[in-house]
Amino acid sequence: MNAPSRPIVFERLRPRRAFEEICERIRDQLAAGALKPGDKLPAERELALQLGVGRNAVREALHTLEFAGIIELRKGVKGGAFIRQGDLGSMTQVMQDLMHLGSISLGELTEARLHIQDAVVRLACERATQADLDMLAANIDVTEEVARSSDYLARIECSREFYRLLAVASHNAALCLIVDSLTDILMKYLRARVAAGVRLKPDLVPARRRFLGLLASRDADAAARDMRTHLQGVHRLLTGSERKATAATGKTAGAARLAAGGHRIAVGQPVAGAQRNRH
Fold first, then answer.
1. 3-class secondary structure for 123-175?
2. What domains, with CATH codes, occur in the chain?
3. For residue range 215-245, what is the model confidence (pLDDT) as tens digits?
4. Which residue of 35, 95, 120, 276 has the fewest C-beta atoms within 10 A of its own C-beta?
5. What residues contact residue 262 under an 8 Å CB cut-off, 6+ apart?
6. Cα(256)–Cα(83) distance, rounded to whole angstroms?
7. Confidence (pLDDT) at 148
C-alpha cells in the first residue's frame, strides 16, 4: 500500500460539557419512547445522582431544554420538569430569529413555501374528505364577509386559517406543522405591509373559490399551478415589487398616451426611471 503523499492531520476532539451530555441523554429517552409528553423528570438532586454530575450541570441542561421547547419548568409543591407537548411556537421563533439574523431570506422562505404548498395541494387533492372541503368553503364564506368590511387584518387571519385547513386536508401532521410555522411568519410580514398602507388584492374570494373547485375536482396539476401563481403574487406584495411593477406599467401607459398626442416617445418605451424599478 502506498504511503499518503502528505500526512493526515486530525482535529483535536472537543470535550463535551456535562450539560450537553445530559440534554442528549434526555433526548435519547424521548426518541426511545421512554419519555412522553406530560411525564415528569426526576427531581434535580436525584437526576444529578443518577448521572453522576453536579446539580449546576443538571440545572443548565434543564434550562437549555426549556428554551428548546422540550420541557416545561413548573414551580411550587407539584412543580418540576415536565416533558411538553410538541410546540410549534419554538419552531416558528427559531426560523424567525434566523430571518432577522440574515441566515434565511424572505425569498428563500417563499421558495420553500412554494414547494411545500405544492406537496400539500397535491396530497389534499388525493386525500381531502368532504368535511375538509366543507371547512374550506366555510372559510371562504367568512373571508367574503370580512372583505366587504375592508377589515384587512381580519382578512389576513382568514387567510392564515385557510392555509391551516388546506394543510389539514393533506392528512399529514408533519406538513401541518411546517405550513403553520411558515404561514405564521409570512402573515406577520403581511400585517406589517398592511400597516404601512399596502392594500390587499380585491379578487381573493373568487380566486379562492376557483382553487376550491379545482381541489374538489381532484385536478392536482391545475390546483398546484393555481396555488403557485397566487403565492408568487403574495411574495411580490410582501417585497413591494408588485407596486413598483404597477408604477412602471403606469409610466409606460402614460408614455403611450403622450405619443398619441404627437410627442416623440415610442409606444411601450419606458420613461426615465422605469428601468430602475423593473424587477
1. HHHHHCCHHHHHHHHHHHHHHHHHHHCCCHHHHHHHHHHHHHHHHHHCCCHHH
2. 18-83 (1.10.10.10), 90-239 (1.20.120.530), 249-277 (no CATH)
3. 999 999 999 999 999 999 888 888 775 444 3
4. 276
5. none
6. 67
7. 85
106-115, 160-169, 241-250, range with the lowest pLDDT: 241-250
Residue the block writes with cell 379545482: 214
Kindly indicate the confidence band of residue 132, based on its pLDDT and cuts at 50, 70 and 90. Answer: very high
How many angstroms separate the CA atoms of 181 and 76, rounded? 33
CA distance 182 to 104: 12
Amino acid at 110: T
Burial of 27 (0-12, 13-18, 19+ CB in 10 A): middle
Q: How many other C-beta atoms can be found within 10 angstroms of the C-beta atom of residue 12?
A: 5
Which is higher by pLDDT, 246 or 112? 112
Can you spell out the DSSP letters for 268-279?
TPPPTTHHHH--
Region for 102 from its dihedrals, namely left if φ exceeds 0, alpha if ψ lies in -120 to 50, beta otherwise: left
How far apart (Å, rounded) are the C-alpha atoms in residues 170 and 164?
10
Q: Within 10 Å of residue 216's Cβ, how many Cβ atoms? A: 16
Residues 85, 88, 91, 92, Cα dihedral to 10°: -160
Contact call for residues 62 and 71 (beta carbons, < 8 A): yes
CB 176 within 8 A of CB 163: no
Round to whole Å and give the CA distance between 28 and 45: 20
The backbone torsions φ and ψ at residue 54, rounded to the nearest 5 degrees and listed phi first, read -80, 160
Q: Could you give the CA distance from residue 186 to residue 264 in angstroms, rounded to a whole number?
A: 45
- Classify 178 as helix, strand or coil: helix
Query: 106-127 vs 204-216: helix axis angle to the nearest 10?
Result: 40
